[in-house]
Amino acid sequence: MLLIHCPYCEETLPELEFAYAGEAHIARPADPSALSDEEWRDFLFIRTNARGPHFERWRHIHGCAQFFNAVRDTVSDRFLMTYKAGAPRPDLSPKEDAE
Ligand SMILES: [Zn+2]
Prior knowledge:
By secondary structure, this protein is mostly beta strands. The protein is 9% helix and 34% strand. The protein has one helix spanning 37-45; strands at 3-6, 11-14, 19-23, 53-59, 67-73, 78-84. A four-stranded antiparallel sheet has the order 3-4-5-6, with no helix packed on it. A two-stranded antiparallel sheet has the order 1-2. It binds zinc ion (ZN). The site of zinc ion has 7 residues, from loops. InterPro entries: SoxD, SoxD_sf.
């Protein structure tokens, strides 16, 4: 069973407490009527389907009911981090060692 940390409740709880809510950081177009059919299709349906770290939205449906974001490795199914909705997308690039 997956264990997921809610960044609002500050508790790590079983997956059954949560609901997946799609890919995170998908910005709604400012003027949808200005988009072509292909651009609108891409906004609605085209997702990254990443192999490895994937940015996702989750909702704590049996707790605080808040939406939050998570980074989950799709290979290991391990949650790398969770953070509050509206927070900037974390930089996952490797850090240089300060030697
Ligand atoms: Zn919560």
